[in-house]
Amino acid sequence: MMWMKNHVMSQTMVLLMKCLTMSHIPISEESEKSDEDDEAGMCDDDSETSSDVSDGMHNVNETFLRMSVDHVNKYYNKKPMRTSKLSGDAYMKELLNGHPGVCYEMFRMDVDVLRHLCNELKRLRILKEDKGIVSLEESVAMFLYIIGHNTRMRVVSDRFQHSTETVQRRFRRVLRAIHELGMILIKPDPGCNELPLSLHTNGKYYPWFKKCVGAIDGTHVSARAPAERANSCRGRKHVITQNVMCACDFDMKFTFVYSGWEGSANDSRVFEKAIISDKHMFPWPAEGCYYLVDSGYPMGGTFLPPHKSVKYHAQEYRGRARRPKNKSELFNYRHSSLRMVIERSFGVLKARFPILTHMPRYSNTRQRMIVTACCAVHNFIRTFARSDEMFTLWEDMEDPTGTEGLARQRCARAVHALRPEAVAAMGTLRDQMTEMMWIEYRGGGSS
Q1: Residues 209 and 136 occupy one common structural domain
Q2: What average pLDDT score do residues 392-417 get?
Q3: Model confidence over 307-360: pLDDT tens digits?
Q4: What is the domain range of residue 92?
Q5: What is the pTM of this model?
Q6: Which residues form the DDE Tnp4 domain (predicted)?
Q7: Domain-terminating residue out of 185, 216, 243
Q8: Which of 8, 117, 256, 297 has the fewest CB atoms within 10 Å around its CB?
Q9: Is 436 found in the same domain as 377?
C-alpha cells in the first residue's frame, strides 16, 4: 500500500509541474509581444496594460500552486486522526474480559449474551467475518453501542478508533443482519394455544382467558420525515413519529412487528392493513384462540376488546373504594391487567434502546429496519437471559403505561375474523365470561 501511495504522489507532483510549466507560456508570450510593441513605438498605456496582464497571470499561478500544495497535503500527506493507544479491538477485549456490569452498560446485554449473539450470526451465515481490521464482534458492538445510547457516528468513531465511514458501513451491515435475524425471532411459539402454565394458578385470569395467546397494541416511535410529510407524521403529542403495531406473548416477546406508518395514522387503520395484507405475515392463532386488544381495535373472531363506556385501565381500580362495582368493570379490570404485558414489553424496549425515542436522520427504510432490529435483539435477550435486569424490573410493574403509554388462506382468515357472525360470537363469549367472572367474584373469588 505504501509503494502505491508514493507512486500516486509522485505522479501527482509530475502532473503539477507540467501544469505550472504550461501556465507560464501565456506570460512569456505576452512579455515578448510587449517588447515588440515597445520597439514599434507603442504608447505607454499599452505597455501598462501588458504589465497588468502579466501580474494577473502571475497571481493565478501562485493561487494554483497553493491549491495544488494544499491538495497534496490533504490527500497524500495525511496526519493520522485516530491515534489512541486503546484501539477498538483492545477496547472490546477489555470489556469482554472485565467487569460484567460495564459490558451491560455499554451494549445493553450481558457478556455471554453478546458472545452468543455474535456466534448465532456466524452460524446462520447472516453476518460474515470480515477480512479487514474490524472483527465481527467489534462490528456488532458498534451497532449495539449506537442503538443502546443513540450515539452519533462521530462519537463511536472516536471510541472504537475507526473512520466515520467505516462505522457507518459496519452499522448498515449489522443492521441488515439483525433485521434478517428478526424474521427468525419475531414469531409466536408454534405450540402456544392458551395461557402459559405460569398463569394457570392465577384465578384472576384462569380459566377466564384460557385461550388467550397474547396482546396487540400500537406504540409511537420517534421518526424523521421530509418537510412535505412532516404534518402527516405528527402524532397525538404533535411530535413526528411512526405508528408501530405489535403483538406479544405473555413472556414479553414480540410475535409481530408492523412499522412504517405515519404518526397521525389511526390504530384501527394500521390494524386492518396488517391483518388483511398477506405480505405482512400476521401470526393468526389456532382456531378458538384470540388476542387481547384495547377499545381502539374492532372486535373479531380472534380479537377480544373490553367493554366500551366502562372504565378500563387497571390503575383506575386501585384502592378499596375503587374496586369493580359491576360485572363489566370486573371484566375490564382483569382484561386490562392481563393485556398490560404489551405495555411492559414496550417499556423494556424503549428503555433499552433510546434510539427509538429520538431517531437520527436516517432514510424511512432504515428507520423501519431499526425498529424491527431492536425488537429482534429484545427477543434474543429474553430467550437467552431470563434474569436480565431490565426484564426483571418491568415484568412485575403494575403501571407501565406512564412510560408511553399461505396468501389466500391468510386473507380469508382476516375477512372471516371480522364478519358480523364472528364479531357476534366473540361478543357472546365476552358476555359469558363477564357473567361467570362476576358470579365467581361475588362468591369470594380472586379480584
Answers
A1: no
A2: 55
A3: 998 888 878 888 777 788 899 999 999 999 999 999 999 999 999 999 999 999
A4: 88-185
A5: 0.78
A6: 216-379
A7: 185
A8: 8
A9: yes
